[in-house]
Specification:
Layout lengths: L18 H55 L1 H4 L4 E2 L12 E3 L12 E3 L9 E5 L5 E2 L11 H16 L2 H5 E2 L2 E2 L10 H13 L4 H6 L13 H10 L4 E6 L10 H12 L12 E3 L3 E5 L5 E5 L2 E11 L3 E6 L19 E2 L10 E6 L9 H6 L5 E2 L2
Parallel strand pairs: 4-10, 8-16
Antiparallel strand pairs: 1-5, 2-3, 4-12, 6-7, 8-15, 9-10, 11-12, 11-15, 12-13, 13-14
Helix pairs in contact: 5-7
Organism: Coemansia spiralis
Protein name: UFSP1/2/DUB catalytic domain-containing protein
GO molecular function: ubiquitin-like protein peptidase activity
């Protein structure tokens, strides 16, 4: 027996026309109700599927975040070999001896490497930056895009090593943002850059990178390094070598500037106890200056010193994309660090970023001025 659902009873009072018209109206109402019911069920099913997809997406994101954070937190242990500038020195012999400390393996910050070489044909000396500078080279996962971050880490390692205890907590009586324990990871540097942008540093650059770099493989360059350092309270300066200064397309003005930076006779902070006389009229001298960030189109490096010879001047440059570990079982010659004048040929322009030896936390008007990046052009 067919039972009528009360919800299906339609009040036909006032319906005009013949019986067939009434029945057609009744059927039309029923069809409309059925269509609405099917539509509502479809919406509910769609919402349920969407929620299920969102739940799965969030779960995958959490897993991805976990492994990414784990890799970042362990980054100081799984990166390639790190050297200290103080371990680069001249001695007799034409091979480099890589020695590892007993405190850790090749992935450890405690790695020790002695770069031992002899130039047999010319008398020369080497001037190196702050001896506490760590040399970082890229891990496999960040090759090809993270050179800017690795070079920034080298700069920060020098700054942190040279800052005394008081400067690590306060600068000019104000709270310092300078890290006190270890060099920040790439992820931390990305977050620092975004914080600097939010505080108004380099608005144009922030716009170009869409105000976001954390968790991405976006390249950064000189201006982004400036923002990170300035936001930490480190006064940074940019020098533009905007064109070649020799007929053959090389950049001797760049080399002259770097040599003057490392050999400035007015530098009273050089440590005379670190001047080493080596057989063959060769010396290695450390100066209390930070390394230089060197940028050209598509890549960046860190200048850690200069090699001065009778007939040539070479920059000593660390390229984070060149693995020191790859040479750990063979001879590692100084040529891996030399950057010759001829190597600048074909490169339209260079930028150098250098930082003051003394920390200075800019406040008030000075801090606002530092948010707008400027540079000095040479020549």
């Amino acid at each position: 027996m067919y039972m009528v659902d009360p919800a299906d009873i339609i009040d036909l009072t006032g319906v005009s026309g013949d019986d067939s018209d009434g029945m057609e109206s009744l059927e039309g109402v029923k069809d409309a109700k059925l269509s609405e019911h099917i539509k509502n069920n479809s919406v509910n099913i769609g919402e349920s599927k969407q929620k299920s997809k969102q739940t799965k997406r969030r779960r995958l994101q959490r897993i991805s975040d976990f492994f990414r954070e784990r890799a970042i937190n362990l980054g100081h242990r799984d990166d390639s070999t790190r050297l200290r500038v103080e371990q680069l020195e001249y001695t007799r012999g034409d091979k480099t001896i890589i020695s590892k400390s007993s405190n850790g393996g090749s992935n450890s910050n405690s790695n020790a490497a002695a770069l031992c070489t002899q130039t047999q044909d010319i008398a020369s000396c080497v001037v190196l930056c702050n001896k506490g500078t760590m040399l970082f080279n890229a891990a496999i996962r960040d090759r090809g895009w993270a050179c800017g971050y690795r070079n920034c880490q080298m700069l920060l390692s020098s700054i942190i090593a040279s800052a005394d205890t008081s400067h690590r907590t306060t600068v000019n009586g104000a709270a310092s943002r300078l890290p006190t324990d270890r060099v920040p990871s790439i992820r931390a540097l990305q977050e620092m850059l975004e914080l600097a942008w939010r505080d108004g540093y380099d608005r144009d650059g922030a716009e170009q990178l869409k105000h976001r770099v954390t968790g991405t493989r976006k390249w950064i360059g000189t201006t982004e390094i400036y923002c990170i350092l300035a936001h930490l309270g480190v006064q940074a300066h940019i020098v533009d070598f905007h064109c070649p200064t020799a007929p053959d397309g090389t950049h001797p003005a760049l080399f002259n500037w770097v040599v003057e930076y490392f050999t400035d006779a007015s530098d009273e902070n050089s440590d005379p106890t670190l001047i080493r006389d080596v057989p063959g009229n060769k010396t290695t001298r450390f100066v209390a200056k930070h390394p230089l960030y060197l940028q050209h189109h598509g890549h960046s490096r860190t200048i850690v010193g200069v090699e001065l010879a009778a007939n040539a001047t070479n920059l000593l440059v660390f390229d984070p994309d060149i693995s020191i570990r790859a040479h750990s079982n063979s001879a590692l010659r100084l040529s891996h660090f030399r950057y010759r004048l001829r190597d600048t040929r074909g490169k339209a322009q260079f930028q150098i970023l250098h930082v003051d030896r003394e920390l200075a936390l800019l406040e008030g008007e000075g801090a606002e001025i530092s948010k707008d990046i400027s540079s000095k052009r040479v020549p």
